[in-house]
Design a protein that fits this description.
single chain; 2 helices
Length: about 110
């Protein structure tokens, strides 16, 4: 968590001993340790709550995707839809090249 070596801890202990004195230093060290422990426990609690919420959201998203993939309504609509209308009109021959509408080229006399 903190990158503190033995030298820094020793320096803090010496300064604490000089500032607080030998009578109050153990009590302050215990109090600091208890506060640090509470802070760590609180952080772990917040972290586990966040992880639990993320896992629950991921599970909800997976369930929605699975439900959408398994939803048969689109297939049922397609299956119960009326069949497409088939054009039963006879096919007409394509116009001959050079023919204009209303001018029947096939019956012209030379």
């Amino acid at each position: 968590m903190f990158d503190i070596g033995m030298g820094e801890i020793g320096l803090i202990a010496v300064v604490g001993l000089l500032v607080l004195g030998p009578e109050r230093l153990p009590r302050v060290a215990r109090t600091a340790g208890a506060l640090l422990r509470k802070a760590r426990n609180s952080w772990q609690s917040v972290r586990s709550d966040i992880e639990r919420e993320l896992a629950a959201e991921d599970l909800r998203r997976t369930m929605r995707e699975t439900a959408a993939a398994a939803d048969p309504t689109a297939d049922l609509r397609r299956a119960t839809a009326p069949p497409p209308q088939i054009d039963t009109r006879p096919a007409t021959a394509p116009p001959e090249p050079g023919a204009t509408p209303g001018n029947d080229v096939s019956h012209e006399r030379n």
